[in-house]
Write a structure and sequence with these properties.
244 residues, mainly alpha, 9 helices, globular
């Protein structure tokens, strides 16, 4: 269970890490007079792998679509050609992140799953089916992050083995992981409820949960900051995506 929780925690960490400093870059740029588009749109609410990549690292996904996928023919030349184009794009995405075999496998798996998601892409308004698809997509994305994080193929396979075999866990409570996951879930639900009240068709990635002009909101905000400082692990402060 500790290995499973560690893998889930990495999914939370890499999202908060990359989305957080993307927001910081967008905000600082806006202070200097430059307007940049959002880079994330609640990717873990994606209903399939294709939808995930439309929500995750939007700047890179858009660039790959405009300069590689569409010039290759996109989806205009039949199903087989579309699948080949998807595999090429996702393999290049893997190579963009690193030259190791783990990144190639990571990109190939996303290409393969993007092809599969296109085969079974059906729209539905059934909330149970949508929720199931969101959960299933999150599980797949989380499992694929193992390849992204692993230092080698054997390391990735060892993590998978430890996830699905019974072994003694490590004596680590993962206090911060539980707290971070809980906050992420609560904030996401709050964002969805607020968007429904304003009749918005989608949440654009910037969803204010608290009105910081109110004293009560400030108390909650700074309490949250204090708990974050107390529970957070600060042994390595480097941004994960800083090396890419």
């Amino acid at each position: 269970m500790t290995v499973i929780l560690a893998v889930i925690s990495y999914s939370v960490q890499i999202y908060c890490d990359f989305s957080g400093y993307s927001d910081m870059a967008i905000g600082i740029s806006k202070m200097l007079g430059f307007n940049f588009p959002h880079n994330f749109n609640l990717p873990y609410l994606a209903t399939n792998i294709s939808n995930f990549w439309k929500r995750w690292h939007i700047s890179l996904s858009s660039w790959l679509q405009d300069y590689i996928y569409i010039p290759l023919g996109g989806s205009r030349r039949g199903t087989l050609k579309t699948f080949i184009n998807l595999l090429i794009v996702m393999l290049l995405s893997g190579l963009w992140h690193g030259e190791g075999l783990t990144f190639i496998i990571w990109g190939f798996m996303y290409g393969l799953l993007s092809c599969i998601s296109k085969l079974f892409k059906k729209s539905t308004n059934n909330k149970f089916i949508i929720s199931t698809k969101v959960l299933f997509t999150f599980i797949i994305v989380t499992l694929l992050w193992v390849w992204f994080r692993a230092t080698s193929v054997s390391n990735a396979l060892d993590v998978y083995k430890q996830m699905f075999t019974v072994n003694d866990g490590i004596s680590q409570m993962y206090t911060w992981s539980f707290f971070a996951i809980l906050c992420l879930v609560v904030a996401t639900i709050a964002a969805m409820l607020k968007s429904n009240k304003t009749n918005r068709t989608q949440i654009d990635g910037f969803y204010p949960i608290l009105n910081l002009s109110k004293f009560s909101s400030l108390v909650i905000f700074f309490t949250f900051i204090g708990i974050t400082i107390m529970l957070g692990y600060f042994g390595n402060n480097a941004f994960i995506y800083g090396k890419f």
